[in-house]
Design goal:
single chain, 280 residues, mainly beta, ten-stranded parallel sheet, eight-stranded parallel sheet, 10% helix
Length: 280
């Protein structure tokens, strides 16, 4: 009998140890009942969970109301990116069309900076960021710093300042209004308004759009818009205000390109069937 009890206790301990801790959020994390993000605290909880080694694969998250970090004008840092150079987010995040306002992040020595620092095989949609300032070394973007095989759709970053502090000699700055560096995956129906600056691969939507080999087409950037923005760099690696490659049916209007030289730059003055409201 004692041996039987010991085996039962050992089995229970193994089950408890093997169970993965869940984030302290309302909801169950399923598509039908996603984890709810309704506050700055909830976003911080998700960042802690992911940066602690939980990639959220198969889990669903949804923003349920506007989140305001104001007053942001006197704040240098008020949030932590979700994912970093060694941890990534691999779940599904739906911004619900609500606005996250006033994000501030200023770490000039850190890479993988954005609302999401690092993603892999993730889905991010319907996210609206307004009045944001994000500064990092490389792989800096409004929505995602580094996106691998990730789908980013219907997102807006407005009244934004996105800055890369990398030096000219640093090979890949990858600074973008929506995504800093994208490897595979897609970015579609996204809008950027603001300023993007840095060195080496700077653009309004995707700073650097990586793809494997010259015979493979670059991954898709589709139906995106950069409007009333300034894109600034100090070398020749700015090919377009949208991205360095791989974009289609995407436009910019009322923008300034600030660089020593540039290739393939053009302006579409007439944008049909597109409307956007930029809030203050």
């Amino acid at each position: 009998m004692k041996k039987y009890k010991f085996l039962c206790l050992l089995t229970m301990m193994m089950v408890v140890v093997g169970a993965k801790a869940q984030p302290n959020l309302s909801g169950s994390g399923t598509e039908a009942d996603p984890y709810q993000i309704s506050s700055k605290t909830n976003l911080a909880t998700l960042a802690t969970y992911v940066n602690g080694g939980n990639n959220c694969e198969g889990l669903y998250f949804k923003v349920t109301q506007d989140i305001d970090y104001s007053p942001a004008s006197t704040t240098t840092n008020n949030f932590t990116p979700i994912g970093n150079d060694s941890r990534n987010f691999a779940g599904h995040f739906d911004g619900g069309g609500y606005t996250i306002k006033g994000l501030r992040y200023d770490h000039s020595d850190n890479s993988y900076c954005g609302l999401f620092g690092n993603t892999s095989s993730a889905t991010i949609q319907n996210v609206i960021l307004n009045n944001v300032s994000i500064k990092g070394l490389t792989r800096v973007g409004g929505i995602v710093g580094h996106a691998y095989a990730t789908t980013v759709s219907n997102c807006q970053v407005t009244n934004a300042t996105i800055t890369g502090t990398n030096s000219v000699s640093y090979a890949y700055g990858s600074i973008g209004g929506i995504v800093g560096r994208k490897e595979y995956g897609t970015v579609s129906e996204c809008v950027f308004n603001g300023t993007v600056s840095g060195n080496k691969y700077i653009a309004g939507i995707v700073g650097y759009n990586y793809y494997q080999g010259y015979n493979n087409p670059p991954t898709t950037i589709n139906r995106c818009l950069v409007i009333n923005s300034t894109i600034g760099a100090y070398d020749s690696n700015v090919y377009n205000l949208i991205s360095d490659s791989g974009f289609e049916n995407s436009y910019y209007s009322g923008c300034t390109l600030r660089t020593t030289s540039a290739n393939n730059c053009y302006v579409i003055q007439l944008l049909k069937n597109y409307s956007i409201t930029i809030s203050s």
